[in-house]
Design a protein that fits this description.
Layout: H1 2-9, H2 17-28, H3 34-51, H4 62-72, H5 76-92, H6 96-106, H7 116-133, H8 137-159, H9 166-179, H10 183-200, H11 203-219, H12 223-240, H13 243-249
Length: 250
């Protein structure tokens, strides 16, 4: 299970042979314990959704996984894994309102795991910053305060050189700078987020940083920069294998 989680979060193309081999191993192995089977299924659903593949008759959805887990064992950890993947999909697919609702309902609960835990902390901070940008007054202040809780964890991990969080911190810095109207810093941080994600092979985050930079330049009325970053985002999402996302923004 951890192997597939690592492959998913590390930016390997979704149709990469290593991902396909792991899926094939799951299909061929009839002796998984129920927890491992359901854990793997969470990532299979995410990969299919991002690649734009239709679900087959009888395939589990997220609600089915949670229901089956609750019947068979203490499902707290698995429920958190489902939350992490749902948040991942909503952010990557640009469903910011749904992501905001998911984070709002979740409170400050943590997600365990060497990959999902770090990733979810980053995404929760990002969603809170976007929510702060799109609101005003006390509501914006509350979202910013909440964003900074997760932000400080990412910053501490980056300082400790733990978890490949440098590009994530740059992207959070960019969105925080946008919120604070520090446009020069925002542009520099977007540039750094893109460069570090590219250097370390995080295709999905290289794509996401370009997409958010494009949206930023669009709001500033800088059409050439907007188009350049959008094209880069499309290229990165395509290389990653997220055909469903490409159809949304192309």
């Amino acid at each position: 299970g951890l192997r597939l989680a690592h492959l998913f979060y590390s930016g390997r193309p979704l149709c990469d042979s290593a991902v396909a081999d792991t899926i094939a191993l799951h299909v061929d192995n009839q002796h998984w314990d129920k927890y491992t089977e359901l854990f793997l299924q969470i990532y299979f659903i995410a990969i299919k959704k991002l690649r734009g593949l239709e679900s087959e008759d009888g395939e589990r959805g997220f609600d089915d996984i949670i229901e089956e887990a609750n019947i068979n064992f203490d499902a707290k950890l698995l429920n958190r894994a489902v939350f992490a993947i749902q948040l991942e999909l909503q952010v990557l697919m640009g469903e910011w309102d749904q992501a905001e609702k998911l984070v709002s309902e979740d409170g400050d609960a943590k997600v365990a795991g060497p990959f999902a835990g770090v990733r979810c902390t980053f995404l929760k901070s990002l969603v809170c910053l976007k929510a702060a940008q799109s609101s005003s007054g006390i509501t914006s202040w509350k979202w910013k305060r909440r964003a900074l809780k997760s932000y400080k964890l990412i910053r501490a991990w980056e300082k400790a050189k733990s978890g490949n969080t440098t590009h994530a911190l740059h992207l959070l810095n960019a969105e925080l700078a946008v919120l604070e109207f520090n446009y020069n810093r925002a542009q520099n941080e977007y540039k750094s987020a893109i460069a570090v994600a590219a250097r370390n092979g995080f295709l999905q985050d290289q794509a996401l940083a370009n997409e958010l930079a494009s949206a930023y330049f669009d709001r500033r009325g800088l059409d050439c920069s907007r188009d350049r970053h959008l094209e880069a985002a499309i290229n990165c999402y395509s290389e990653w294998g997220a055909a469903a996302k490409v159809r949304l923004i192309d």
